[in-house]
Write a structure and sequence with these properties.
This protein is an alpha+beta fold and 378 residues long. The chain contains 12 helices and 11 strands.
């Protein structure tokens, strides 16, 4: 039976509508994942301490909250990214910012000098909040980068955010920089009098951050930091066929070697573990050839694994047999920025981190997954 012109027209219309719906779903799905991830993360991990202050709870228990400068940096960074989509306001950002400003560290023999670095931890003790002295460079870097981004997202507050950014980046260079190694230290406590003065946290190698700070301040030391730290990271990467780098390394101006177990925090200090897992995320958007080469070596290793598990020795032996979003989310982000490098299997396999709601009892997994969604889904 021949179809009438009307029937053919109806079929064409239905086909066009179906195709349009399919395209919209394809386009909106990443947008939906981003929005949902941010909203779930904020609801679960951001605690309002007062009308004008909020902090990121890193303890995985709301009844026993702990704030870390690292978590506050991530919180500001994620909120700035959400602000680009209109999901977060400058007030949301300022509440997190006010908490940071209320917990700035002091340096000097008697802790007499106020800085713009953040004290690394706050928690409750016998019903009262206490704050541990000393800073952690990873938290300060993310706070500074969030401020840099906020100047573009909320123009009416730009002058205020830019002023704070400059104060903070100046203090990072004043108190968290070793001019001998041309690299950032792990915190303001790792002074020239400390045996940790030559210690580098590999996840502090943040070339896109350093570029942003240089363009904002025109301080040539940020170029020195970028070159010095990328060179040392590359030195570590080529020491093993895997390309993997350790959580921490001892460095000089022209060399680097992994630390021994228990040098800083755990038996895995010299392995690709809970700190180094962030390295792919930190290198993802950089166009610097050294960053690209180091990242490619690591991605090649991961692409040959049936499953990417939670941590490896530098020779490629698994530290655990389970998968973890803290390791997979940064890899997903890195591959997302470098889809033309032939690691589509990693792009597909590491998407599992978005297949279920964010965990409510694992701040680190949830936070790195949210960052990967906000940046890797673009």
């Amino acid at each position: 039976m021949r179809l009438s012109k009307f029937t053919w027209f109806l079929v064409a219309v239905i086909t066009i509508i179906y195709t349009a719906i399919f395209i919209v779903i394809r386009v909106q799905n990443p947008h939906h994942i981003q929005a949902t991830s941010y909203q779930q993360w904020r609801k679960t991990y951001v605690i309002k301490q007062s009308a004008n202050r909020s902090f990121v709870n890193t303890s995985n228990q709301r009844s026993k909250p702990v704030a870390l400068s690292e978590g506050q940096g991530y919180g500001l960074y994620i909120t700035a990214a959400a602000g680009q989509h209109g999901w977060a306001s400058s007030r949301d950002f300022d509440q997190l910012l006010n908490y940071y400003l209320a917990h700035r560290d002091r340096v000097g023999e008697n802790h007499q000098t106020q800085t713009y670095l953040m004290k690394w931890r706050q928690y409750q003790k016998k019903g009262h909040w206490v704050s541990d002295i000393n800073s952690a460079t990873d938290g300060d870097l993310f706070i500074a980068m969030a401020l840099h981004q906020a100047t573009q997202i909320w123009p009416k507050r730009a002058a205020y955010y830019r002023n704070l950014e400059h104060h903070l980046t100046n203090d990072i260079l004043a108190y968290e920089y070793n001019p001998q190694t041309k690299a950032l230290t792990v915190g303001d406590w790792a002074t020239s009098k400390s045996k940790y003065y030559r210690l580098m946290r590999t996840s502090d190698v943040a070339p896109t951050f350093f570029d942003a700070f240089y363009h904002s301040s025109h301080d040539p030391r940020w170029r020195t930091v970028k070159n010095g730290m990328l060179d040392r990271l590359a030195d570590l990467s080529v020491q093993h066929q895997t390309g993997l780098v350790p959580d921490f390394a001892w460095i000089t101006a022209d060399s680097a070697k992994p630390v021994k177990p228990w040098t800083v925090a755990s038996e895995n200090d010299g392995n690709y573990s809970a700190n180094a897992c962030r390295v792919p995320m930190m290198l993802a958007a950089s166009k610097d050839p050294r960053a690209q080469k180091t990242l490619s070596r690591m991605m090649r290793f991961f692409s040959h694994r049936t499953h990417v598990t939670a941590g490896y020795t530098l020779t490629g032996q698994q530290l655990n047999h389970y998968q973890s979003a803290s390791f997979s989310a940064p890899i997903f982000e890195a591959v997302s920025f470098n889809r033309n490098h032939g690691y589509d299997n990693l792009f597909s396999s590491q998407k599992f981190v978005f297949s279920k709601p964010l965990p409510k009892d694992n701040y680190y997994d949830a936070t790195l997954t949210t960052i990967a969604a906000m940046e890797g889904m673009n």
